[in-house]
Write a structure and sequence with these properties.
Strand content: under 5%
Length: 298
């Protein structure tokens, strides 16, 4: 693909001394490196995250079986099926957040790429669009895989048909809104997990309380002496343990996921703001007014 877009002259662009592309999405995207199809921008491949979640959960329970009588092992292995579900959803969420972290770090590297000459005499016009686009393909393998460069690519690809700087600025703003929408939807599954994990904990609470209350009723119906009641109540308190421990597991897991989600989402929002600033500084401010635009404004 890059071979079809290499310009014949550089117009002030500095060629790389090596033949390697400085920023390659194909080589650097974490999902691509794991032999999965990489999600668009910072969107995560669900199947890749699912596989990692299974691996993390398996490793977690394997570690618990090293000390099967410990409090943590008993809590997660002898309290019914609910702790297994909470653990799986928790590590699936963690896998998504880890992938998003590395994908966002890769996207941030595009902010360091110089795609428009820093020469103050350079103007961006329909005549120099091909040179800038060619520069993109020399610094990255495909601009469409990078949030920032895709935004610039769409604006420049339409520059030949636009007559005003405001038109280009409007396209950039439209792309910025689209990128924000993509970012919001990429967190939908995580937000569902943040809701589902504590609900699972409450389901465990209901099950534990139900077992405890049912056991207590059986004790009163089948025993008469106080000593027998005390011995039978030991089994009843096991249901209460399930009730409170699953609730704690769900709330703690949801809290951890929510805090990490908030931190990464804030970082991604700051990245999108950086993309907008980059476009204003390096694209909009370098555009040359078309002749008829100058007459209209005068």
């Amino acid at each position: 693909m890059a071979s079809n877009t290499q310009p014949m002259n550089t117009n002030g662009f500095a060629d790389s001394a090596s033949g390697l592309i400085p920023l390659s999405w194909t080589r650097a995207d974490p999902e691509q490196r794991l032999a999965f199809r990489g999600g668009r921008f910072t969107r995560v491949n669900t199947w890749c995250a699912l596989l990692l979640g299974v691996i993390f959960s398996t490793c977690f329970y394997a570690a618990l079986y090293i000390a099967p009588n410990s409090y943590l092992a008993v809590t997660f292995t002898q309290r019914g099926p609910i702790p297994y579900c909470i653990t799986f959803f928790f590590f699936w969420s963690i896998a998504i957040l880890i992938l998003k972290f590395f994908k966002l770090r890769l996207q941030r590297r595009a902010l360091q790429m110089v795609v428009v000459p820093e020469n103050p005499e350079f103007v961006l016009s329909p005549l120099t669009v091909d040179d800038v686009i060619g520069r993109m393909y020399r610094v990255v393998d495909d601009p469409k895989h990078f949030t920032l460069l895709n935004r610039i690519y769409v604006a420049l690809a339409n520059l030949r048909n636009l007559g005003r700087v405001a038109d280009v600025d409007e396209i950039l703003e439209t792309q910025a809104s689209s990128d924000e929408s993509v970012m919001e939807t990429s967190y939908s599954l995580l937000q569902g997990f943040v809701w589902a994990i504590p609900v699972l904990g409450f389901i465990g609470t209901v099950q534990g309380l139900s077992a405890a209350i049912g056991g207590f009723g059986s004790v009163l119906a089948t025993t008469e002496e106080l000593s027998q009641v005390k011995d039978a109540l030991k089994d009843v308190t096991g249901g209460l343990s399930v009730a409170f421990e699953t609730t704690m597991q769900g709330l703690v897991a949801a809290l951890i996921v929510q805090l990490l989600l908030t931190a990464i989402k804030k970082s991604e929002e700051e990245f999108l703001d950086g993309c907008s600033e980059y476009c204003v500084r390096n694209v909009v401010s370098r555009l040359r007014l078309m002749p008829y635009e100058s007459r209209e404004e005068s």
